[in-house]
Amino acid sequence: MQKTTTRKATASKSKKAEATNTDPMLKEFFHDELKDIYWAEKHLTKALPKLAKATTSDTLKEALTSHLEETKTHVARLEQVFELLGAKAQAKKCEAMEGLSKEADSIVEDTEEGTATRDVGIIMACQKVEHYEIATYGGLTQLAKTLQLEDIAALLESTLTEEKAADEKLSDIAENDVNYAAAEEEEEA
Question: Which CATH number fits domain 24-188: 3.40.50.720, 2.60.40.10, 3.30.470.20, 1.20.1260.10?
Answer without folding.
Answer: 1.20.1260.10
